[in-house]
Amino acid sequence: MTSSTADITRATVQKFLALRLAGDTEGLTALFADRVDWLLAENPAVPWIRPRSTAAECAAQFTELMEHTVPEDARASVDTFLVDGTDAVLTGHVSGTVRATGKSFEGPFALRLTVEDGRITRHHLYENSLSIAEACVS
User: Fold this and answer.
1) CA-based nearest residue to 101, from 135, 67, 63
2) Quick one: DSSP state of residue 2?
3) Residue range 58-91, pLDDT digits in tens
4) b/e map of 13-27 (b: 16 or more CB within 10 Å)?
5) Could you report the per-residue pLDDT of 11-50, keeping only the tens digit for each?
6) Coil, helix or strand for 106?
7) Strand stretches in 1-138, DSSP E
8) Taking CA 28 as the corner, what is the angle to CA 26 and CA 31, rounded to the nearest 5 degrees?
9) What predicted TM-score, i.e. pTM, was given to this entire model?
């Protein structure tokens, strides 16, 4: 029995979530395509929010996030996980605390991922960047 495109997409996104949860940067690097269409509104006040385009840069976002936030305070929940062919959309809620300021941030998020040949080629994240930026300012 052959897996459908949607099955491969779902399995790849589930692997992505497991690797993020485990903090497995090496595994994430292998899961991202060599070149990634990365979209996350750049915010100079937030060190981990910046343009990225290579597999290693995309995987490193998790490490940078953990360096600048308090890991014990990090929370993320997924409310919706939709798959249509090579595309997946997750929606949910994220919160955390910035290490340097002790201020917290929270808000909804939407993440659009595209999977081609079992690797993530698109990562577009929409989140409450204002809350995060305000938490980064002393």
Assistant:
1) 135
2) P
3) 988 888 988 999 989 999 999 999 999 999 999 9
4) bebbeebbeeebbee
5) 999 999 999 989 899 999 999 999 999 998 888 888 888 8
6) strand
7) 32-39, 75-84, 87-97, 104-116, 119-127
8) 115
9) 0.92
